[in-house]
Amino acid sequence: MTLYDRRDLGLLLLRLGTGGVLAAHGAQKLFGWFGGHGIEGTGQFMESVGYRPGKVSAMAAGLAEAGGGTLLALGLATPAAGAAAAGAMAGAASVHAPNGFFNQEGGYEYAASLGLTAAGLAVTGPGRLSLDHALGHTVDRGWMVPFAFAATGLATAVAVGLRVQRVRRQKQGEQEALFEEDLAE
Asked: What is the span of the domain harbouring residue 156?
């Protein structure tokens, strides 16, 4: 087996593994499969952590994960698929960041790993064992990589920025309520 063949096989394994995990997480959010809570339950969770409106946020995250993951696994539209999945994982990481890095403490380790792998695949490309290769890379051009990351980065920055503002306002309101309770005593 040549080095080039090993690279293609390695990229296929990375795409299948990462894409499959992302697609399963998206299916949990969208359809309630695999023990997930579907749009309703995920929407309620999204609201509770500052992503509003909750159902729209659940739909966006679910589509980015399920769609991006499926496309990554297939090796189709790899720049857009990887960027979308990386953006969804950046949003997830922002929720887990206050818990530190490690997953066992509820940290962002898992989301960061999935996001970085998806981003790496978007940049590297899918390899020859992919639909992109079979279709002559019509939806996997070099110029698409920076465009996909710019569009996803902008959307993610807006969504996460709005969430951070909401969480700060909520915490400030809670602190003011505690202060008023202390004054009343």
From this structure: 3-184
DSSP H helices, the chain, are 3-31, 38-48, 54-74, 78-96, 109-124, 131-134, 144-184
The residue written with tokens 């290769």 in the block is 133
How far apart are the C-alpha atoms of 83 and 136, rounded to whole Å? 20
128-158 pLDDT tens trace: 999 999 999 999 999 999 999 999 999 999 9
> In total, how many domains does the chain have?
1
Nearest to residue 86, comparing CAs of 30, 18, 24, 39? 18
- What is the C-alpha to C-alpha distance for residues 95 and 73, in angstroms, rounded to an integer? 26
pTM, 2 dp? 0.88
Kindly report the CA angle at 71 between 70 and 74, in degrees rounded to 5? 90
CB 71 within 8 A of CB 80: yes
